[in-house]
Write a structure and sequence with these properties.
The protein is α+β, with helices and mostly antiparallel strands and 66 residues long. Helix content is 35%, strand content 12%. A two-stranded antiparallel sheet has the order 1-2. Strand 1 and strand 2 form a beta hairpin.
């Protein structure tokens, strides 16, 4: 069976988190697809290391995890 490649425009939701803060935010917002979190700048994908890291607007989501 041939494995279908994922769309280059929609990140996989199973990419691991870089650190605990990112993991907590993703867990709290697990009803949102990863692509939505990226679109809002809360997180981004470090393609070199294949992990999800803090995005430029991560601090806006911090109140959800504190």
């Amino acid at each position: 069976m041939v494995k279908q490649s994922s769309s280059p425009h929609r990140p996989r939701d199973d990419v691991p988190s870089d650190n605990e803060e990112v993991a907590k935010l993703r867990l709290i917002l697990n009803h949102k697809p990863l692509s939505a979190l990226i679109e809002h700048g809360l997180v981004k994908i470090d393609k070199e290391n294949e992990v999800v890291v803090k995005g430029p607007n991560f601090e806006e989501g911090r109140s959800l995890i504190d």
